[in-house]
Amino acid sequence: MNSDIIVIRGAGDLATGVIQKFFRCGFKLLVLETEKPSAIRRSAALCEAVYTGFASVEDVSCKKIETLAELNACYENVIVPILADPYGKSLTQLKPAALIDAILAKRNLGTQKGMAPITIALGPGFYAGKDVDAVIETNRGHDLGRLILNGSAEPNTGIPGDAGGKSTQRVIYAPAAGELSANREIGDIVEEGEPLCEISGKVVRAPFKGLLRGLIRNGFLVTKGLKIADIDPRLDVNWQSISDKARCIGGAALEAFLFLRRQT
What is the pTM of this model? Predict the structure, then answer.
């Protein structure tokens, strides 16, 4: 199958910013995800379609497909198809024009230059010129969104970006392994000490008053230390829209693709 399709690995909240940029510019896309995505900012992440069959974020709608035979129907209806294919097995048949690794795992989960004529990766874990053609800086600061054509992005700091004066305090991790039982929903205003969820008998409480911006799916089997929630002290933040960081990274991915295509 000779294809002009661009494949994007990952559909979390940052990857959704990439998807929107390419979608708005009229490119045919195929999104590849895991069978059980673990995004916490689910209201702004198209990976929810893997669970529900269909999801929308702003002006982009995404539909889960089971085979590549369903691609054209999605394109005819101006819908982005998403396929549960964590290892990229469909790439051999599809032969895409470009591959963008937007998993943001902080390490390379298997993306290689030979997978497509143009390969782009977001964040640390990749070496531009070796693993992929270009890497995009994802660390907040002066270089956010910078194209790297030779070398790597900044190492993972493990420190979340500041939001309303809160950084490490706003991200919540699982205190134990087990099935998560949610007490609240994304978009709720929660008080300090209020229960957010329970895992294996351990109650996870809000560290401060804020807006519950992200929470992993109810019933998800988490591992100890997994990021499960995000609280924003800014009570009026738009929790349903693509973030400023995701928009910046999305624009950088589009720039990288157009730049690399011009070189070929």
Answer: 0.93
pLDDT score at 34: 97
CATH number at residue 186: 2.40.50.100
Q: Which two tokens stand for residue 34?
A: 């895991």
Looking at the fold, whether 177 and 259 belong to one and the same domain comes out as: no
What is the pLDDT at residue 244? Answer: 94
Do residues 131 and 253 share a domain? Answer: yes
Domain total for the chain? Answer: 2
Q: pLDDT tens, 203-237?
A: 999 999 999 999 999 999 999 999 999 999 999 88
Structural domain including 180 reads 168-232
What gap in Å lies between CA 92 and CA 68, rounded to an integer? 12
- Let me know whether 102 and 136 are in one domain: yes
Pair (38, 97) in one structural domain: yes
Which amino acid is residue 185, in one-letter code? E
Has residue 162 got a pLDDT over 90?
no
Q: Which residues lie closer than 8 Å to 133 by C-beta, 6 or more apart?
A: 113, 118, 119, 120, 149, 256, 260
